[in-house]
Automatic annotation (TrEMBL):
GO cellular component, one term: Golgi cisterna membrane
Predominant location: Golgi
Family: Belongs to the chondroitin N-acetylgalactosaminyltransferase family.
GO molecular function: glucuronosyl-N-acetylgalactosaminyl-proteoglycan 4-beta-N-acetylgalactosaminyltransferase activity
Bias (Low complexity) ranges: 30-42
Identification of the protein by name: Hexosyltransferase
Membrane topology label: Single-pass type II membrane protein
Locations listed in the record: Golgi apparatus, Golgi stack membrane
EC number: 2.4.1.-
Region (Disordered): 30-56
Keywords: Glycoprotein, Golgi apparatus, Membrane, Signal-anchor, Transferase, Transmembrane, Transmembrane helix
InterPro entries: Chond_GalNAc, CS_glycosyltransferase, Nucleotide-diphossugar_trans
Gene that encodes it: RvY_17450-1
């Protein structure tokens, strides 16, 4: 058996060698004869042994690569736009399948990057419109690369190209056919009838990029000189399209999806400078226009982040598969965190563990919050937008092959709930539009329900070597993550170790300059100064204190007491800058903070705070961490106490950091507490000092910073919950003489600060007679 098997293998090897050889012999026009006489004895074993034939090795055929990209630019853009293109999406083109080159005027030189693949076209200048440059660039591609690539792309230096998506798109097409691809156009309304286009004739818009197959370039190349001499408009993309139509015989591809793939944003210079989280950015292969280098890098970062999320999702799927295999090997040993998504993964063991759904439309209806009906927060809106985008991307993954696309129109309503082990569950009622653009075209509105789960990913741990932000103990949350229990705080334990060489310099370098406005309220002032001593002065923190006090005939004696007391504090802590400024007239918080800010240089870090606030040393760390001159101002969301009579006990009455749902709420609508550099404060014009009385001045300043961020994308307002900043309760008096807007804001804050929803509910349940008072005349 073994011998027969060996012979069989040898026989197959011999026959295979002969067949391989015979298939590579040249074939004569006369099938009955052979060009070489020795071949007539090819079946003779002795003759084969004498001749020892060696098969001819044909010359190596170099395979064509996929894509050549020519970027049309100018000398003045080589050092910025062109270099940025080369270092962003130009580096993402796979070198084994694609090549990029930049085409500019004669004598052009890139000074910032000598490695930039630059072609300085002889006899070409940088005049506009660049018709000669465009045609000679295509001619250069034909003369040097026509046999090396399947596809050729003409791009501007203000377009962003997703190389991976472009490669996937081109490999789905037949490169041997004459294809002219881009976003088809016939001119805008102002140009209609002025481009000399025949009825039904079009062109591919140059901005988002033009792609032609090798066959199109081969057909039009001999006629470029003619096309350049017979221009009928000033638009080079129109003339390229006219030349291709005339000599290659193909129009720009009329296709519904080309508007999505080759995406042109009509916002001009403002395009892609805002939020990139949109379906257009996610679906596009090219984005146009991107006018600055900064935004090219920003877009590249965004796509890198999307790639990272995709890879993390793939890792999660692989981990789930590993968990599945382990469960088969070791029954009962599967990891519940790696179970596949389903709305039924969480199994409650008691009624208290049943997950509760929240209903939302354009408003959010929730019994888990003190305000049962409210506008959804920006984080919820962002999450819903991201969820629907992921869902639509999944639905349209194979839209090109199926000749249809499903567009998201609006979210009619939905339900959401939080599974603490696995993720967030959604039930969505969606208004969609079904569009079929191949075969029998049709458009139809569709309404569908979606049942979705956004799973939690693995936890990423980041070590902060500067130690800032590592001291506070995390809050202990109940199952529904909505009820904050007692926040364990010990000021002495939570102070940063000043002997730690990694922390001391970073924490103490930047001086935080407190600016505090007051008018009377001596007892509150004493409490605040005691807190400054305990947290800052006695622990050698880098701070200063400026108090601005308004003096009237009613509180002049209080001012003298304040002045005398503050002098004693200065004597105890002579190393600190502690100042008291006097302001005349009615109280104006805007005027007080403006006056206090004038004491400091432009590079000083200001902290505008009220005398009612409690804080600790971690507050200073967050201020320094979250405020950057010229880049970011910090508006912390503080915890505001309810009336202590509704919740305090003997043990909690002096604990300002007793944070529970019944003791207070996060004041998301408050903007009075903020940190900023004086340069940024002056940059936006500071406070409106014409505002007197309670409120409004803080909102005005906040809106100025928001508008500044809209003008300068590098400038941001950072807003986050700070559990170490607590507004201590005090009765709020709303003067009826206040401006109507101020009065409404004051009354709203007063009402919100009375008591928690649960406390008021219990009070009503204990006093049912109150429910009938509205029935009485």
């Amino acid at each position: 058996m073994r011998f027969g098997r060996t012979c069989d293998i040898l026989f197959r090897v011999v026959i295979g060698t002969l067949v391989a050889y015979l298939t590579r012999l040249p074939i004569s026009s006369n099938s009955s004869s052979c060009p070489n006489a020795s071949v007539t004895s090819v079946t003779s074993r002795p003759h084969l042994q004498e001749r020892q034939w060696q098969p001819e090795v044909p010359p190596e055929v170099k395979p064509r690569r996929l894509l050549f990209v020519g970027v049309m630019t100018a000398q003045k853009y080589l050092d910025n736009r062109a270099a940025s293109v080369y270092h962003t999406w130009g580096q993402k083109l796979p070198p084994e399948t694609a090549q990029i080159a930049f085409f500019s005027s004669a004598g052009s030189v890139c000074h910032t990057d000598p490695n930039l693949p630059l072609v300085a076209l002889p006899g070409v200048d940088d005049s506009y419109p660049p018709q000669k440059k465009s045609f000679l660039m295509l001619k250069y591609m034909n003369d040097h690369f026509i046999d090396d690539f399947e596809w050729f792309m003409r791009a501007d230096d203000d377009v962003f190209v997703r190389g991976d998506r472009l490669e996937e798109f081109l490999r789905s097409l037949n490169s041997s056919k004459p294809l002219f691809i881009g976003q088809a156009g016939m001119g805008n309304k102002e140009e209609f009838g002025m481009l000399s286009l025949s009825p039904g004739e079009n062109f591919c818009m140059g901005g988002p990029g033009i792609i032609i197959s090798r066959e199109v370039l081969r057909r039009m190349a001999p006629h470029m000189k003619y096309c350049l001499k017979h221009l009928l408009s000033t638009h080079e993309d129109v003339e390229v399209g006219r030349c291709i139509g005339k000599f290659a015989g193909v129009p720009c591809a009329w296709s519904y999806e080309m508007q999505t793939i080759f995406y042109h944003n009509g916002s001009g210079a403002a395009a892609f400078t805002g939020d990139l989280h949109s379906k257009q950015v996610h679906r596009a292969i090219t984005l146009h226009p991107v006018k600055t280098s900064e935004h090219l890098y920003r877009i590249q970062n965004y796509y890198n982040a999307l790639k990272l999320l995709s890879l993390r999702h793939e890792i999660l799927k692989l981990r789930r598969e590993v968990s599945d295999m382990n469960s088969l090997l070791y029954p009962g040993k599967s990891d519940p965190m790696l179970a596949w998504p389903t709305l039924n993964r969480f199994r409650p063991e008691s009624a208290e563990q049943v997950l509760e759904w929240e209903f939302f439309t354009k408003s959010l209806f929730s019994h888990l919050d003190f305000n049962p009906k409210r506008a959804p927060r920006s984080s919820l809106k962002w999450a819903q937008n991201d969820l629907t985008m992921q869902m639509m991307d999944s639905l349209n993954q194979y839209s090109q092959q199926r000749g249809r696309v499903i567009d998201f129109r609006e979210l009619l309503y939905g339900f959401q709930r939080l599974d603490p082990l696995h993720g967030v569950h959604y039930v969505l009622d969606l208004h969609l539009v079904y569009r079929r653009y191949s075969g029998k075209k049709m458009t139809a509105p569709v309404r569908r329900h979606a049942y979705l789960e956004q799973s939690f990913s693995s936890i990423d741990l980041v070590e902060e070597v500067d130690c800032v932000g590592t001291s506070p103990f995390p809050p202990n949350l109940k199952r529904d993550f909505g009820r904050l229990l007692r926040y364990h705080t010990d000021l002495k334990k939570r102070q940063l170790d000043s002997t730690d060489p990694l922390c001391s310099k970073l924490v103490r370098d930047e001086q935080v300059n407190f600016v505090v406005p007051i008018s009377g309220r001596y007892a509150t002032y004493l409490r605040f100064i005691k807190l400054m001593e305990d947290v800052c002065f006695s622990t050698n923190q880098s701070v200063s204190l400026t108090i601005v006090s308004f003096v009237t005939s009613d509180n002049s004696e209080t001012f003298l007491d304040t002045e005398k007391h503050l002098e004693s504090v200065r004597r105890r802590y002579p190393q600190y800058d502690i100042s008291l400024l006097r302001a005349e007239g009615n109280f104006s918080r805007a005027k007080a903070l403006h006056l206090g800010s004038q004491r400091f240089a432009n590079d000083s870090l200001l902290f505008f705070v009220d005398v009612d606030m409690a804080f600790d040393v971690e507050t200073l760390s967050r201020i320094r961490k979250s405020t950057k001159m010229g880049r970011m101002v910090y508006y912390p969301i503080v915890f505001s106490q309810y009336d202590p009579s509704t919740w305090s006990t003997k043990d909690t009455s002096v604990d300002h950091f007793h944070l529970t749902q019944d003791s207070g709420y996060w004041r998301q609508f408050g903007y009075g507490i903020a940190s900023m550099y004086r340069a940024d404060f002056e940059r936006v014009g500071g406070f409106d000092q014409s505002i007197y009385g309670w409120g409004k001045e803080d909102v005005d300043l906040f809106e100025k910073y928001i508008k500044e961020g809209e003008k300068d994308s590098r400038f941001a307002v950072f807003r986050a919950v700070d559990p170490t900043l607590v507004h201590i309760y005090h009765p709020i008096h709303c003067d009826a003489k206040l401006d109507s807007v101020q009065l409404t804001m004051c009354l709203g804050t007063k009402a919100a600060s009375l008591a928690s929803e649960s406390v008021m509910t219990r009070y009503l349940m204990d006093n049912p007679s109150l429910l009938h008072t509205l029935d009485k005349p």
